[in-house]
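Tokens in:
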């Protein structure tokens, strides 16, 4: 993904899935497209020290990938160019 929206959400009471859903809803409203890819900091996926990459996505239809270039509590969300919508 080369173009996306950067979203910040540090709500300590919200689960990861809820935060991604909020970002996706705003993205749909603002850009008129449904996002299907979201990059987050690896520490946001791995709460128990488990392998984050092998875990299923916390949000249906949105692929969540860890990236050290995204800071904790930030979400880089957009449309995967391989999905054909970009």
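Residues out:
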């Amino acid at each position: 993904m080369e173009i996306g929206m950067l979203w910040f959400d540090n709500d300590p009471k919200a689960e990861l899935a809820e935060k991604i859903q909020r970002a996706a809803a705003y993205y749909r409203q603002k850009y008129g497209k449904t996002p299907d890819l979201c990059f987050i900091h690896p520490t946001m996926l791995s709460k128990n020290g488990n392998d984050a990459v092998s875990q299923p996505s916390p949000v249906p239809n949105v692929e969540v990938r860890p990236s050290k270039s995204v800071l904790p509590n930030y979400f880089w969300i957009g449309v995967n160019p391989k999905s054909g919508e970009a």
